[in-house]
Every structure is written in C-alpha cells, then in structure tokens.
Amino acid sequence: MAMITKNEVLKLASDHESPCVSIFIPTHRAGKETLEGHDEIKLKTQLKKVKAKLENLGLSDKEIEEFVEPVNKLVDDSDFWRHQSDGLALFISKNNFKKYTVPVHFEEFNYVSDEFYLKPLMPLFNGNGLFYVLTLKADEVKFYEGTRHTMTEVITPEEVPSRLEDVVGYDYEQKNLQFRSGQQGDNKAGMYHGAGEGNAEALNEMKRYFRAVNDGIMEMLHEDQNPPLVVCCQDFQFPVYKEVNSYNNLYEEHVSGNPEDKNIHQLHDEAWDLLQPYFNKTREEKLKLYNEYIGTGKASADVNMIIKAAIEGKIDTLFVQNGAELFGEYDSSTQKANVQKELTDSNVSLLNLIAIKVFEKGGSIYILEKEEMPDENHKTVNAVYRY
Fold first, then answer.
1. pLDDT, tens digit, for every residue of 98-127?
2. DSSP string of 305-336, one letter each residue
3. Phi/psi at 39 (nearest 5 deg)?
4. Which of 177, 205, 307, 328 is buried most, with the most CB atoms less than 10 Å from its CB?
C-alpha cells in the first residue's frame, strides 16, 4: 500500500472536468471474502450503477466503456485484490484515475458529478487519529499507517534498509550488544555493554543502522502530513533511535517488546492505547470550544452560514456526522443553499462541498458518530470559526 498525501487530495479537489466519478467500497485483508472475490463483486455492483448514471448524462456505450476501462482492469487484477486494507477509493475523470487502499472502512457508495467526493478521506488527515508505526528489529523493518479503528502495512522505499547487516556488514552478530539504563532522571543516559571489547563500535553500528532507517523513512513522508510516529522496539533500542530521528512528531513513548511477538492487531491496539490521550485531548478541546462559542457568532450549526464560512476560509474546526448527508444546490451569488432530499443530476453533496473547502483552507475535520456531535439539536454539521 502507498500512502495518500494531502497534496494528492488537493489535486483531486481541483478537478472539475465532468464527469468526475468517485467509488468507495469496504475491502478485506484476507480470509473467505478475499478468496471468494466478495470485494470484486462489490466493485462490479458500484460500477454498474456508475455506468447507468453516465448513460443518463448522455454518454454513448463506447464512451462509457472507454471511461471505466481502468476500473474494469482492476476488477480482473487478482494480485491487486490480495493486497487490500479496509477500504478502497477510486477517482475517475477524463484525465485522471487514482486508486487508494486505505485503513478506513467505507460504506459502498458512488458519486457522479463535476467534482470528486472526498469527504470519506478526511479521517486520514484531520482529527480522527491518523498515526504511523515503525517496527525495528536487526533483521526486519516495517512501517504502518493506522487510524483509530485499524492499521495496515505500507510498502517502504528501497532507501529503507531491511537488515542491520545491510548497513554495517556481516559481523554484527558477534557484538552481543546489551543495554542498561543510566542514571535515574537522565532521559538521554544509557550505558551499552557486551561480552568483551567493541561495545562502542556495536553502539555506533546500531546508530548507523537506525540513522539509515530514519533517512529512508523521511523519503516517504511528506511535509503536508504530520501524524505522530510510534516506534515498536526493545527498550534499549528506543533511546538510540530517538538520538538519530529527524521526524518532528516522533511520539515520546514507544511500544515495548519484540515486534516479532506481536501481530498487526496487537500492534495496533498497543499503539492506540499510547496515542488515545493525545488525540482525545485535541478533540475534547475543540468540542468544548463549540459549546462555549455557540450563540456568540463564533460557532454555527446552520448549513448556509457554514458553507459561506467554509468558502471564505473562516472555519477552524468542522464536525460532520458519520453517515449523514445533505444534498442540494448552492447559489454562490446569493450564498444560499437549497437543501434537497436526494442526489440528482443537477445538485451536489453540500457536506462534501463544505469538507473540501475546509480541507483546502487548512481547517480540522472530525467525522463523529451522531451521539458524539457537539450540538444536541443540530447533529448533521457543526463548525467553530477562526474569528
């Protein structure tokens, strides 16, 4: 799996060459559903619905088949379906085809308009617990992308060494490196000792290895994303990695133990246990602000006011109810939205419009369950303004 970046989402948001087709399906990592092709069937079902919508827009059968050809190729790609996470997002326009395998569970959904439907991707960037996990062993390095509910492995670039011996040579096994913590209260202290001579050399080799890992990881990370990075390693290794780390959001605590002893589910649970206070603190602060500001002009639950504020870049934090939707037409001249019951050929998703504008302007977006929304009387969309 390759990571999706904020810049890629912004590029998708700038594509308005109709038709823009967005398809979302839940997927499975393994098991009976994968073997029996359940995910492919879901994609075929959504593709059939998309074709019907394209036909209603006036496209010929030939134009439709040419348009959806990249999706048809995916359906028949057995190797592709063996490397899934929890959700698959596809975006197709005349000059664009993007596919993203992400650790977010999607409901089956398709959207055909003059814009892409990007709201379901927001948990990967704003306020819903995106984090990275790096596991370190002398003979294996793995990197993961996780959210509040799930985690999946990311393919690392060639610059990330997979074994210590790739960096320092083949004699490292002779070092018998051990670690003993230093003076209490000195977070940087640590004494390495082994059986015999060469302890300083062994420590230096570990530093070289971890520095190479860090440098390789930095090649795949992007400046537009800054989620916390949690390291899973043995206790004596973490101070060494901290010393060579250059990522500016390395989490101060680590998942302790040999990564080999933990499956992906255990690893996710232990990482989330560490990070939950980190994520909850920010979210609770934003929810508290909404309750303080509502009625003062600094917060709102009115869709028309929120759309206007989103377009003007005034929204600091947006709360959207998970699974909720508002369809309608927005008149930019009057700055009014005509909310309608369902999606038609002539209207758009108003919540998608709002989310994209907030995302483009650098605001935070939380996708919350109904009972978690800050406004008890208006639970679809709430916003806190910057000013």
1. 999 988 889 999 999 999 999 999 878 765
2. HHHHHHHTT-EEEEEEETT---EEEEETTTTE
3. -70, -40
4. 307
